[in-house]
Amino acid sequence: MKYSTEIDPDKTAKAYGYEMHCSRKDSENLARGIKGMKIEEAKKFLNEIIDMKRALPTIYHNGKRSHKKGIGPGSYPQKAARYMLKILENAENNAEYKGFDTDNMKISHISTYGGRVIKGIMPRAQGRATDKNTKTTNIEIIIEEVE
Known about the structure:
CATH 3.90.470.10, 3-stranded antiparallel β-sheet, 3 helices
């Protein structure tokens, strides 16, 4: 798997989510929200978003987003948060396998970008058809040990 950055493999663990069926826009905002956090803190943050106890401040693509109390434009991107949590737990397991102390790990790099577009069609009247494509998202997380 080709990552967008090269970091010392002796100090880091990484995980990659390939072609996730979630919104790329929500994933970008989530990535910005959890970058630099420790793993337990990020997992708690993502679980609060999934349970709709905390809204995620929307920085990118915030047109027509309703304002949430105390944060401005925001939302509860539950589907993207579930996928992000799954990949974060995978990175944590990879760090544990490598022999790192998972309590002292923080997210050093996180990146989301568009994946493959899965083509589809929707039949319409009089023999016509409309595109019904599914966009996917690639998510990569690299965590490193904090001294």
